[in-house]
Design a protein that fits this description.
- Helix 2 runs antiparallel to helix 6 and helix 3 crosses helix 6.
- The protein has a single domain, classed as Orthogonal Bundle (Arc Repressor Mutant, subunit A).
- With 148 residues, the chain is mostly helical.
- A two-stranded antiparallel sheet has the order 1-2.
- A hairpin with a 5-residue loop joins strand 1 and strand 2.
- The chain is 71% helix and 7% strand.
- The longest helix has 43 residues.
Length: 148
């Protein structure tokens, strides 16, 4: 370890780093949802991507990645998996590399199967936090995303 950094600095960063804590929370919540969704054959990233596509997400991969706050390469990999499973269809590329993406009937059916599992996980997290903390957390997260 470098002599340039004190234990006080290490303790402060280890104990107070909002990024470290946010990543820990994100991984914990992801595990809750992935575990709940396992019977549907979807992971939470795939589930939310299918929902975004079903809602009419942007046709551009870059805009969709930005909209979902995902790395473009991760998004492309997930889209390819969903397409391979027949859950989405992607049209030919148009201007500015836009590529229309839509849910297939199989994709809609998979979402219908997965929804009760998602709802159960959502309720479990809500219950853990309680109503007041739930609302506060939702507001805080939205504020952070908007200020991005």
């Amino acid at each position: 370890m470098s002599d340039d950094i004190s234990n006080q600095i290490l303790d402060q960063v280890a104990g107070e780093c909002i990024c470290r804590r946010a990543r820990m929370v994100a991984r914990t919540i992801t595990r809750v949802f992935d575990d709940a969704l396992r019977p549907s054959g979807l992971r939470i990233t795939q589930f939310t991507l299918l929902v975004a596509i079903g809602k009419g997400a942007p046709d551009s991969i870059s805009l969709l990645a930005e909209w979902l706050a995902m790395e473009r390469t991760t998004l492309v990999r997930n889209l390819q998996l969903l397409e391979k499973e027949g859950l989405i269809e992607r049209g030919p590329e148009g201007g500015r590399r836009a590529k229309a993406t839509r849910l297939t009937q199989a994709g809609r059916q998979r979402l219908a199967v997965a929804y009760p599992y998602w709802e159960k996980a959502q309720q479990a997290v809500h219950q853990k936090l309680g109503d007041e903390e739930w609302q506060s957390t939702q507001s805080t997260l939205e504020k952070l995303v908007r200020s991005g």
